Amino acid sequence: MSGDAPFRTDLPPLRTTEEASAHRVKGGALPASVFAAYRRAEEELARSAPGCRLRWQLLAAIGQVESGQARGGRVTPDGTTVTPILGPRLTGGAFAVVPDTDGGAYDGDTAYDRAVGPMQFIPSTWAHWGADGNGDGRADPNNVHDAALAAGRYLCAGGRDLSNPAELDRAILGYNHSEAYLRTVRAWYTYYLTGHRVVPDASGGSRADRPKPSRPTTAKPSPKPSEDRKPGPHPSRTPSAPPASPSPAPSRKPDVPKESQTPLVPVPEPTLPLPGGGVLPDAGPLTSDT
Fold first, then answer.
1. Helices marked H in 25-141 — which ranges?
2. How far lies 81's CA from each of 142, 208, 212, 241, 245, in Å?
3. What percent of the chain has pLDDT over 90?
4. Is residue 255 part of a domain?
5. pTM of the predicted model, to two decimals?
6. Is residue 273 part of a domain?
7. Do 33 and 89 form a contact (C-beta atoms < 8 A)?
């Protein structure tokens, strides 16, 4: 479903000389809370799906491309983004057409879906793969701990072994079916495998800082992607209808804004629920088949 969505195309800083590294490392630094979320997700997947061999650096690479590490770690102490991160309205044209599936609960839009959170899940996908990564009893796509664990489960779908380069590529393309996206994520993955720097979160805050829920009754124009983000190739397939019986929704609905300032990439819609036994289901083909 995701093929044509915009994503961050910045490549990792070069590690040439100590001076250059010190000057440019800011672009690849990991905010402390975001880094902790990736490591926690890696540890959980090592227990629940050990054959997947997920490394936290892959989550960091995707998090960098999807949201710039939650906009530089602008999260509250529990890991929730200070302001929600939303992708463009999926109304067709440059993007897939995805009518509303959540009543605006996550994205504030009752007409069309939008990708939500630091790892950019569309609401219907979150209904299948949402996870409670920080143990607070709720699954919130705006929380970096929850989103990182859900992304890890999605990447491990179908018993994938991510130490196999071909399966790693298939997992990344499952997030966004774009060769440019694959190359960009791969570049960041290699960067983080060779080293990383952890920095303080960009800002703190509390849940009170976040906007109140919104239920717009009229469609709003899709925000323009920022100048440093370019759309991927045109998708070759069209999305399928959302599943008839999605997984139970979280017990409490997260706060959402009326508009987003930074459109990000949505992930494709899987078709199977998570089983137990250490093997995750196959995410299936991209839901943008024609």
1. 32-48, 56-73, 123-129
2. 6, 12, 14, 29, 29
3. 57
4. no
5. 0.68
6. no
7. no
Dist. CA 177–CA 188, nearest whole Å: 17
Residue 199 lies inside a defined structural domain of this protein:
yes
pLDDT, tens digit, 9 for 90 and up, residues 175-185: 988 899 999 99
pLDDT surpasses 60 at 120: yes
> Strand 198-199 to strand 30-31: parallel, antiparallel, or no bridges (unpaired)?
parallel
| 20 part of a folded domain | yes
- Count of Cβ atoms closer than 10 Å to residue 202 Cβ: 18
pLDDT higher than 50, residue 82: yes
Q: Phi first, then psi: what are they for 200, rounded to 5°?
A: -60, 155
Q: Which SS3 state, helix, strand or coil, does residue 221 take?
A: coil
Angle at 169 between CA 161 and CA 282, to 5 degrees: 55
Answer yes or no: are the C-beta atoms of 41 and 144 closer than 8 Å: no
CA distance 100 to 241: 11
Q: 241: pLDDT confidence band, cut at 50, 70 and 90?
A: very low
Closest listed residue to residue 105, CA positions, set 221, 234, 214: 214
Q: Sort 251 into a burial class: Cβ within 10 Å, 0-12 / 13-18 / 19+.
A: exposed
pLDDT value at residue 9 = 58
- Total domain count, the chain: 1
Contact in structure between 28 and 8 (CB atoms under 8 Å): no
